[in-house]
């Protein structure tokens, strides 16, 4: 597992669990009663349901996918709670029925601290789309 020692660690920890297709590691990022809203608006509560939402797609259409996450900002609510926004680019591979393609989303995560570890209490993922056409929009990324 990729432990989160500060709220800003969530984009990297989520990316690492996804890219390793490690569903126990993904589940470990969340509080037991956490909520998750995927990019299609599907709402689930609890680690079992969060992992249950992701495990089948990681075994099939996203088995060769990767995420690339980038922190936008972190806002501390208090010393034990924070809101984190980050960009996420999903690169689907040949296993996806639509073939290789990319999807950009904006993720909002609320984290709280228990002891020295931060965990996700709520996460919502929003696909970037053109409101007039419904087409996915890829955000411009800075040249590396």
Automatic annotation (TrEMBL):
Any one Pfam family match given in the protein's UniProt record, by short name: DUF4440
Domain DUF4440, first and last residues per copy: 13-120
InterPro entries registered for this protein in UniProt: DUF4440, NTF2-like_dom_sf, Steroid_delta5-4_isomerase
Protein name according to UniProt: DUF4440 domain-containing protein
